[in-house]
Amino acid sequence: MKGTLLELLEPRGFWEDRKTAFVFWDGEKLPLEKLPMSKQLARLPEHCQEKIRQLPYFNLGKLSYKDLRDKSSAFAYALKEKIGARGGERVGIMIPNMLQFPIVYFGILKMGGIAVPLSPLHTKEQLFTILNDADIRTIITLDLFLDKFNSIKEKTPVKNIITSNIFDSLTLIKTIYAGGKPSQFSLLLAESAGKEVDVKIKPSDIALLLYTSGTTGDPKGAIHTHESLFANARACRDLVKELGLEDGKEIFLATAPYFHITGLATMLHTPLCARAKTILVAKPLDFKTMLAAIAHTRATAFVGFPKQYEGMGITLAKNPGAYDISSLKVCISGSSRLDEKNRKDFESVWGHKIREGYGLTEGGITHCQRTGEEAGTVGKQLNGVTQLIFDPDENLIGELRIRSSYSMKGYWNKPKETSEVLTTDDWLCTGDLAKTDAEGNMSIVGRVSEDMMKGPNDEKIYFEEIEKVLLANPFIKEAAVVEGREKRCAAYVVLNHVEDDALCALEFERLKSDLLKYLIKNLQPFKVPREIRCLTKLPRNALGKVLKKDLRALLSIL
């Protein structure tokens, strides 16, 4: 269907359609002696057995492009004819990056539904809000997350919960070996095999409600149409081609969760648009499994978030030579600023520059560095994006506003909140403070609501500047600045090599006086934090963003 996300699944020819689209990397390799043909395999020379063991996708669950098209059609039929879902209905998905996700996601779209990815990290209160706000009646979830819904189901519109399990992503051999049983999801697929629905989808139809993380209030559902998502997929594909990747030849490693815009846009829509192969890893913070997947499958492209680069860098340093990541051609970091030390740790092993990008739930992926040399920036816009720095101050810092065909149409059921971020002439107010350099590369300075305040005489104080000064101190590992009392800011720091609470307090007491002198020397007086507190770690969300709301709340407690 032209101009919709379903165009990504259209047939391309017999052999092209039988190419692998998705591989689930579970990190487990059954030894040859456990396979049905073990006796025959044992007769082979040892070097032949070793070659079988090293086959990139040997004994891993896979989906070809044809499999994805057929199974998503079957699931669309099951949803419509067996479950009773109707066009325009919102359907929830709580499944990690596994083979079931693309089947379910495109199945929902094929029957004219609206996909609502849900995060396993949402609290029960947040899930309750989302289920009621979107009027979700059907949920497809991994069985491990079933308890999250059972306790709140009666107070929500939910009528149907379809469970899946890990065996739906494993090979038959592994399932039999582990004693796995068929899930509701797999039985529905089997009963509906070969069937499809006849539903006409238009580019302007709503395809997705992507809920914000809820770190600054209740989650809000960003409305995206087929048209906006497909346009963003094509722009991302243009970007990766500009970075040197080729259609039909690449292997993407998908660890960024599909309930987040980074994962959905760059690791689901984009590889399908580029006719690539995608390796799925369900646990985004299992660094050894991620590195093993890169080494074994020879992945060529990875888009992750800072916490992942930090974890992989540490793992590589502790296990020199254990993981070959030389196959990677492109690595991009998003969701928050990449720490310079973490960048260097990973780059020293990989040998190339990590590029930084920018996107948001409401606007898709909009910016990316082209060379990796644009230090401190997120690069330039993707094709089709116009940007504006609104109401800049004397330092040319202002709110970033974006206009593109990828932007959301509004927040679901929230006209007031929509009017606050979408102007009448289609500018999306991102809420991010930004500035551009002479070459047009954009730097994100912080959030309008979280990373800037006015001082005693109405001076603008940008917290990023103070955080950079703190991080330049050799004793400090992490730093976060928030608005404090009496028009002064407050700082939280994490010390290097100190993880025990008691030791942290003692060491900080010893360093506090010198740290204050250091700040007075490097900052204007009104920017020096009134309070400095030490923690063993900063509160962060699943993607590693510091939760400044929690830090502000901590000020009123301590």
Structure explained in plain terms:
- It is a single chain.
- By secondary structure, the chain is of the alpha/beta class.
- α10 crosses α11 (261-273), α12 packs across α13 (306-318) and α13 (306-318) packs across α14.
- It comes from Candidatus Giovannonibacteria bacterium RIFCSPHIGHO2_01_FULL_45_23.
- Residues 61-412 form the AMP-dependent synthetase/ligase domain.
- GO terms for molecular function: ligase activity, forming carbon-sulfur bonds.
- Residues 465-545 form the AMP-binding enzyme C-terminal domain.
Show the helix and strand layout.
Layout: H1 14-17, E1 20-24, H2 38-42, H3 46-53, E2 61-64, H4 65-83, E3 90-94, H5 100-110, E4 114-117, H6 124-133, E5 138-142, H7 146-150, E6 160-164, H8 172-178, H9 184-191, E7 206-211, E8 221-225, H10 226-242, E9 251-254, H11 261-273, E10 277-280, H12 287-297, E11 301-304, H13 306-318, E12 330-333, H14 340-350, E13 355-360, E14 364-368, E15 380-381, E16 386-390, E17 398-403, H15 415-421, E18 428-436, E19 442-447, E20 452-454, E21 460-462, H16 463-471, E22 476-483, E23 489-495, H17 501-522, E24 531-534, H18 548-557
Helix pairs in contact: 4-5, 4-9, 10-11, 12-13, 13-14
In the CATH classification, which architecture of the largest domain applies?
Answer: 3-Layer(aba) Sandwich
CATH superfamily annotation of the largest domain? ANL, N-terminal domain
* Cα gyration radius (Å): 25 Å
What does the largest sheet look like? 9 strands, mixed
Label the overall shape.
Answer: globular
The CATH topology annotation of the largest domain reads as Rossmann fold
The residue-averaged pLDDT reads 88
- Count of β-strands: 24
**Helix/strand structural class:** alpha/beta
Q: What share of the residues lie within helices? A: 25-40%
Q: Report the top-level CATH class of the largest domain.
A: Alpha Beta
Number of helices: 18
Main sheet: strand order: 2-1-10-9-11-12-13-14-15
Provide the low-confidence segments as ranges: none
As a percent range, the share of strand residues is: 15-25%
Oligomer: single chain
Number of domains: 3
Note the gap between the termini. Answer: 58 Å
InterPro entries: AMP-bd_C (IPR025110), AMP-bd_C_sf (IPR045851), AMP-binding_CS (IPR020845), AMP-dep_synth/lig_dom (IPR000873), ANL_N_sf (IPR042099), ATP-dep_AMP-bd_enzyme (IPR050237)
GO molecular function, one term: ligase activity, forming carbon-sulfur bonds
Protein name: AMP-dependent synthetase/ligase domain-containing protein
Pfam family, one: AMP-binding_C
